[in-house]
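Page 37, continued from 36.
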């Protein structure tokens, strides 16, 4: 059993969940890539090589690496978990009334590792009928052979977005895009039934079931320490979702939230695409982000109330410093022209993952940013990302930290 705890973005990383890209990536096509939120199709074998290097670097710095698909497979060995997931994914709404009993009976008999792969990779009509031939169904008869009865979840690659450990609890996030909403079911099952988590006694701030109109995504959530959380109000995280999460976090002991009002663009979809914490009171930040308006949220006097203070754009860094209880924020912005800065931001130059204070993992392709951060005293561990980056996510996005050492240890 684990005792999850994340009280900063920079404490030495002890346990992290990642997802090695698999068969789900082979479902990406030029026609559906936009719907599935990718900029291009991936070369799977190379993406797996790059991800294996990411895992190797994490382990080399002492982190226990947990693979999402393995956790899901182990969870599916538990009858209650299997019933929960199959009931949610293979409902009559999705499979149709006529085919539902046969499909459910087949799924109940599938070995857990194969079922975990199917729930992530999806299954086509043709693949299904190879397993259960002769099913009479108007739904299936209306589908072409390569149509997907269960859609793929290629964005599980970005494990942080759907699951955010915040101090002593976890938020299973409500995802804003349809292509990602089923991801939360897998995390709910894992955190409810997997032996590593089932008896943990941790609070679940949100279980992923709320309306997308209250969306929050983990790429916008950074646990900066001192009882404070930094949250981006972005293309994917809405103000209503931030306020809802704030009431739960405040009830659980979080002291303050600083919400950053971002531009709603694909290139800057989450806060961690423009800034991440890399050391004590220190952030790396994309030059083109500029100074942005912020809101300081604190618990109100009555239960469930939230006090909101609006801060002007020029006070952005001061608001974050105040939440951290320090006089001044250190912001590291690579000195380069605007075109070079935009290219490196697009390639996740600011999307770094700290494995210890001042020790970060980045994509090797962002040469200017990596050289600058090294010159400023950071230890920069680079990984390849030519294929992994096609979904617009870097090391920070591809990691769901579960346990970090407290900063005072």
């Amino acid at each position: 059993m684990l005792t999850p705890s994340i009280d900063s973005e920079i404490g030495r990383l002890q346990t992290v969940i990642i997802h090695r890209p698999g068969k789900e990536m082979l479902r990406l096509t030029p026609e559906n890539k936009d719907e599935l939120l990718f900029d291009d199709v991936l070369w799977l074998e190379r993406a797996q090589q790059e991800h294996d290097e990411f895992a190797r670097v994490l382990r080399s710095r002492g982190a226990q690496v947990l693979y999402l698909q393995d956790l899901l497979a182990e969870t599916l060995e538990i009858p209650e978990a299997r019933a929960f997931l199959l009931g949610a994914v293979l409902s009559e709404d999705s499979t149709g009334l006529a085919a539902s009993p046969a499909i459910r009976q087949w799924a109940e008999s599938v070995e857990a590792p194969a079922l975990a792969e199917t729930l992530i990779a999806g299954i086509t009509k043709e693949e299904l009928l190879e397993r259960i031939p002769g099913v009479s169904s108007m739904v299936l008869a209306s589908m072409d052979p390569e149509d997907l009865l269960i859609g793929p979840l290629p964005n599980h690659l970005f494990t942080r977005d759907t699951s955010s450990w915040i101090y002593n609890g976890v938020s299973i996030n409500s995802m804003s895009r349809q292509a990602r909403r089923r991801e939360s079911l897998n995390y709910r099952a894992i955190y409810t039934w997997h032996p590593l988590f089932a008896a943990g006694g941790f609070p679940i701030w949100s279980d992923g079931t709320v309306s997308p109109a209250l969306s929050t995504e983990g790429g916008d959530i950074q646990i900066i320490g001192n009882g404070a959380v930094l949250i981006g109000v972005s293309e994917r995280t809405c103000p209503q979702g931030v306020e809802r999460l704030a009431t739960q976090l405040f009830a659980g002991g979080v002291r303050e939230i600083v919400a950053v009002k971002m531009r709603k663009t694909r290139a800057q979809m989450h806060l961690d695409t423009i800034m991440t914490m890399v050391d004590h009171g220190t952030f790396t930040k994309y030059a083109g982000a500029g100074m942005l308006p912020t809101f300081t949220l604190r618990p109100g006097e009555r239960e469930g109330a939230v006090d909101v203070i609006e801060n002007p754009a020029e006070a952005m860094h001061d608001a974050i410093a105040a939440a951290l209880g320090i006089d001044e924020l250190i912001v590291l912005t690579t000195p380069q022209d605007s075109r070079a800065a935009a290219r490196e931001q697009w390639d996740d130059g600011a999307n770094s993952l700290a494995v210890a204070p001042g020790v970060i993992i980045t994509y090797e392709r962002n040469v200017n940013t990596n050289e600058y951060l090294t010159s400023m005293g950071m230890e920069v561990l680079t990984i390849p990302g030519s294929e992994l980056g096609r979904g617009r996510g870097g090391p920070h996005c591809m990691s769901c930290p579960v346990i970090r050492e407290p900063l005072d240890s």
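The first helix runs from residue 44 to 60. Flag for discussion at group meeting. The mean pLDDT is 93.
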